């Protein structure tokens, strides 16, 4: 049964008034919560009968504070009992007994599977519009940042071993463990170890262990698949086991198992959190976990208006279309969108331009990994359908394909390239140089020329505003995942975005107040 917040003030509470700065996070959060959150919003999470819980207004606010300050559940429990600033921000009286960690965990679990966090996020966007944050200085920017996973990356041996143990625990729960004993060759799956102990420097022992683990895993999978009425959790566990058992190995015709070279596409990196992925933001920045993509808007692009979360291996720009649509559903129409090279998706750009959205997107410069002539050194005439190399050789291509936005590949003959005095500056291939004509080559050429102008440079200089937003989000709960799985990580990012938007809104209201006080007018203290 839902509990009610105690808003009755005592003499002790009056003593606290004025002692906490009005520009502090605690005061601004209290003001916003007092005027925007109530128990009715959280009623779908609770029964109408039974013992009263702590007010979900208190717990939701406590979770916002956790992300802002980096508190664990145990730390939040202690702070909510002894720190007057926390009680003040919660809108609780000074004699409040605090929120225990178990209650925080229980209420959070309820919120994970609800739309309440999303609804409050949209509410902050509407408020930002109401207080005037979307004006002539409105700036929409799209960008992404990495979220570190809460689990460690595991090697192939550990994943398969732990995957088998996980399936065996489910089988034991459903009283199927006797069948597993007849299937498995190894007998150490009940031991409390991460992976078997062998001489890891011995390649023969490693190969033998790999073969045993893979065969045990696949035998277990095949045996369970023959059963009827498999429970959903067990079914999910065997599907995961089958995937991790096969993603890094090859089974030869004679039945032997060997490790393959390279990395499987969309490779699982942890049994504990099978939605984590290995990715990189740049060539030098590696990350295991997730990636968040955001669109910001409002004055100087300070308000988060859309957010998506995916595995860290997803390319930047993957969710550009989804984010534009999400922003519209959240009540924000994007007249112009700024982004870096990752968002130079001209198919999407052309589609959105027809809908009235303009773009300030940078396209990457043409490069040649071998250090020779780049594509820009070749004269590409899209009207005549010709490509001229730096030494004057000309090749024709089909202009009908480029007009239909189809990619075209132009190949210079090996004889021409091998006899060319500029070959060492062009290509190392004995088969000659190849030039790919992009489906949107015309638009790319035009954009590269425009990027050289002062007009573009002045306009594009607005884009770095998003870096300040990302810094704020990652410093206050957005850098490291607290939970496992996309659903929960997305909820975390929504909470972080709510916190950001509340701070931006309340700061903007303070600015308005200061201006009105100077004019002798009444100040609107609330959002």
Chart the SSEs and their pairings.
Layout: H1 11-16, H2 25-36, H3 56-69, H4 73-82, H5 84-90, H6 101-112, H7 116-130, E1 140-148, H8 156-173, H9 177-183, H10 203-225, H11 232-246, E2 249-251, E3 257-259, E4 277-282, E5 285-297, E6 303-311, H12 320-329, E7 336-339, H13 346-354, E8 358-361, E9 379-381, E10 386-388, E11 394-396, H14 399-403, E12 408-411, H15 414-418, E13 434-437, H16 441-450, H17 454-460, H18 465-478, H19 486-518
Parallel strand pairs: 1-7, 7-8
Antiparallel strand pairs: 1-5, 2-3, 4-5, 5-6, 9-10, 10-11, 12-13
- The number of strands is 13
Helix content: 40-55%
Poorly predicted regions? none
Shape: flat
Biggest beta sheet attributes: 6 strands, mixed
- Total helices: the number is 19
Q: Structural class given helices, strands, pairing? A: alpha+beta
Backbone CA Rg: 29 Å
Protein name: IS1182 family transposase
Domain Transposase InsH N-terminal: 28-110
Pfam family, one: DUF772
Domain Transposase DDE: 389-505
Question: Could you characterize what this model shows?
Answer:
It is built from 19 helices and 13 strands. With 527 residues, it is an alpha+beta fold. The strands form 4 sheets. Strands 1, 4, 5, 6, 7 and 8 form a 6-stranded mixed β-sheet that branches. A 3-stranded antiparallel β-sheet has the order 9-10-11, with no helix packed on it. The protein has a two-stranded antiparallel ribbon with strand order 2-3. A hairpin with a 2-residue loop joins strand 4 and strand 5. The longest helix is centred in the last third of the chain and has 33 residues, at 486-518.
